[in-house]
Design goal:
By secondary structure, this protein is of the alpha+beta class. About 15% of the residues lie in helices and about 35% in strands. A hairpin with a 3-residue loop joins β1 and β2.
């Protein structure tokens, strides 16, 4: 048995025609083994806002392909894909379903068209 920790930059292709790129490692939660993807920060451009780094974990059954890349290529894919941790319209919909008196969209800065930074 090896004590080496697995870490590699990669492009992960998920069922549902989704892709995510970043630093990939193994993660175990509650005895279940997951694939962890640490997506790097994306700098702002003239046309698009910056995106904060985030981490997502996926079960092996959600993945149909992993392409191992060097760091530069993985960051390039992350910049191109612009995956966000939470879909903004889903968050707005969830907030709208809250009972009156709870956090509103304006308190969380969701009134404008720009997605929030988490």
């Amino acid at each position: 048995m090896s004590d080496q920790k697995f870490e590699q930059w990669a492009l992960i292709e998920l069922f549902g025609h989704q892709r995510i790129a970043g630093r990939v490692s193994e993660l175990t939660i509650g005895g279940a083994s997951l694939v962890r993807v640490d997506v790097p920060a994306i700098d702002a451009t003239e046309d698009e806002m910056a995106l904060q780094p985030f981490t997502k974990a996926f079960g092996a059954s959600a993945i149909y392909a992993i392409t191992f890349l060097d760091e530069a290529a993985s960051r390039l894919y992350a910049r191109q894909l612009r995956v966000q941790p939470i879909n903004t319209w889903e968050l707005k919909r969830a907030l709208q379903s809250l009972p009156a008196g709870h956090s509103s969209q304006s308190q969380l800065g969701l009134d404008d068209d720009e997605p929030p930074h988490f």
